[in-house]
Structure formats: C-alpha cells, structure tokens
Amino acid sequence: MSINKEKYIEIIKELGDKVTLVAVSKTKPVEDIHELYDLGQRDFGENYVQELVDKEPILSKDINWHFIGHLQSNKVKYIAPFVHLIHGVDSFSLLKEIDKQAAKNNRTIDCLLQIYIAKEETKFGLDEKELNELLHQLTIEPLNNISIKGLMGMASFSDDKELIRSEFKYLKELADKINIQYSIPNVQCSIISIGMSSDYTIAIEEGSTMVRIGSLLFGERNYSK
Ligand SMILES: *Cc1c(COP(=O)(O)O)cnc(C)c1O
How many domains does one find in the chain? Predict the structure, then answer.
C-alpha cells in the first residue's frame, strides 16, 4: 500500500508543462496522498462526495481538489466551499445548483462539461445536441458564479486504440467548435480533460491538457473493503 514513485516521476516528465496531472486518489488512504504531495503533487481527484469531504480537512490547504465523479445536485453544497474544479457537469440544472452554492460561498466555481464519447451505455455525459442546448440556455439565463473552462470525457473501455483515439479527437473538435461558435463571457474551453491510466498517451497525442491518473500511481483499487 504505497505509491509508485518511479512511475510518478516518469509521468511528470512525459507530461511536460502543457499537461496537468490530476492524481486520482479515490479509495486510497491519506497516507498515500501525503507521499505524492511530498514529491510535489498538488492536484488530486476524487469521485465520491463523502470521501472527499472526509479527506479535505485533514490534508494540506494548498491541494487543488478535483471532483471527477458523477455529482448529484443535493451534494454540491458539501464541496462548494473548497472544490477547485468540477469535471463531470452534465446538465443545466446541476450547473444552476453549482452556481447557487458558489454564490453562497462568495466564489466562482470552475467547471468542465462532461461529454459522452464512449460506445458504452454506462458512461455519463452530454451528446452534441445536449451540449448546444446547455450552452444556448446559458445565453438566455446567465450564471455569474460558475466558469466553464473546458470539456471532460471518458473513452470506451477497450483495447482498440484507434477507437479510443477517434473518441478523444471528437471531444477536442467539439471544444474547438464551441470556442468559435459561442461568445459567452464565462465559457472558454481551454481545458481538455481526457486520459486515464490505460489511455493517457493517446489522449496527450489528441490534445489533452489534463490527464486523470489513478491506478498507475496508487496501484489497483480495491472496492470490497
Ligand atoms: C477512477 C477514475 C479515473 C482514474 O482511473 P485509472 O484507470 O485508475 O487511472 C479517471 N477519471 C475518472 C472519471 C475516474 O472515475
């Protein structure tokens, strides 16, 4: 139960200064987070609200906490005071709730819109039509305490590298389109959050600016405990 330091150093070198590493620490103990923190890592990702809320107060205040899971509207209030970036926004109503809770905390919360790019029913996210509807809604009903910084996606769970590549390419093209087609003050797609342990090298080749890596750094997760 210890982190893979060699792998961490290798990945950091590989990413260079154009791609941000979010170390995905879900299900992992705070000791492991400490170890990576001591090597200089500051961006960590969590999937479960309760787990994040438990970990945040006992860890350093200069950690950037990324919420990368599926967020339910009724739980936004728990992470709104401190969350750095919410990756999985997939509806206007969720965005509205984030805006409301951000206002209560006198802050702006940065968000990514999650796009459905995989060929699997189990994944969350907006399709292109829903994405356009959401952005259109924002032009009618501006939200002043959120800022949309980019798009996030999860590729198919597959060995087919060309399939994964085409899914990442599609997401990058959507981000470029949004930047050209819309001029909404708090929407600027500069963050492309794609790539996990198994596919981050493909993601980088296809324009990722942020990778979310868990098991390569922390080892396989054990959900049975
Ligand atoms: C768990 C998770 C990751 C990290 O997955 P690994 O395969 O362990 O790198 C990345 N993104 C999301 C949305 C996740 O839920």
Answer: 1
Q: Is 203 exposed, middle or buried (0-12, 13-18, 19+ CB in 10 A)?
A: buried
From residue 88, give the alpha-carbon distance in Å to each of 30, 172, 179.
23, 16, 19
pTM: 0.96
Residue 224 is assigned to a structural domain of this protein: no
Q: Is 27 in the pocket of ligand 1 (CB under 6 A)?
A: no
> Residue 69 sits in a domain of what CATH number?
3.20.20.10
Nearest ligand 1 atom to alpha carbon 87: 13
Task: List Cα–Cα distances, 103 to 4, 50, 54, 106, 131, in angstroms.
Answer: 39, 22, 23, 5, 24
Closest to 207 measured CA to CA, from 179, 159, 173, 163? 173
The tens digit of pLDDT for each residue in 158-185 reads: 999 999 999 999 999 999 999 999 999 9
Block residue for tokens 């997939």? 90
Distances (CA, A) of 102 to 33, 73, 77, 136, 159: 26, 13, 8, 21, 40
Helices 92-104/128-140 angle, 10° precision = 40
Tell me the pLDDT band of 122, cut-offs 50, 70 and 90: low
Ligand 1 pocket residue status of 47, Cβ below 6 Å: yes
Look at residue 48 in the predicted model and tell me its pLDDT. 97
